[in-house]
Amino acid sequence: MERAQEHASTGGSDGPATRPGEPGTALELLVHGVGGTTPQEMLNDPRTVRITGDDTAAVFRRADDVDAEHTPDDRRREGPVPEAYVWCNLTSGNGTRALWLLLLPFMVVNLAHWMRPTAHGRRRTVRLYGLLVRLTALTLTVLLVAAACEVALDLAAWQCAGTTACADRHTWLGFLSPTVSDGGWWSAPGRRLALAAVVPTALTVLLWYLSRRTWSDYESQQPIERAPEPEGDGGPTALGRPGFWYGRRLVARLRAAHTAAGLITVAAAVGSAAARFDRRPGGPAVLGVLGLVLEAALAACAVAVVWVVCRRGRSERRLDRKLDERFVRRLPLVALVLLALALLYAGWERPGWTSEGRLPGDATFGGIALVQGLLVIVLGVVAHALHRTDPDRRAVLRGLGGPAVAMLACALGGVMSGGVSQRVSDWLDGTGASLEGPPVLLTWQASVIPPLLVVLLGLIGWLAHRAWQLARAERAAVALDYPDEDLDPARTRRIAYTRAMAALTDRGPRIVAVTSGVTLLLGAGALVGALATDETPGEAAQGAYPVVHGAAETSQALGSWLIGLGFLLFVTWGRRAYKDASARRTIGILWDVGTFWPRASHPFAPPCYAERAVPDLTWRMATWTRATGGRLVISGHSQGSVLAAAAAWQLTPSARKRVALLTYGSPLERLYGRWFPAHFGPDALSSLHRDVDCWRNLHRLTDPIGGPVRLPGDSGPQVDHAPLKDPLAYGRTDLLPLPAPILGHSDYQADPVFAEERRRLLARLRPEGPAAGEVPAPRHQPEPPAA
Question: Mind telling me which SUPFAM superfamilies this protein's record contains (predicted)?
Answer without folding.
Answer: alpha/beta-Hydrolases
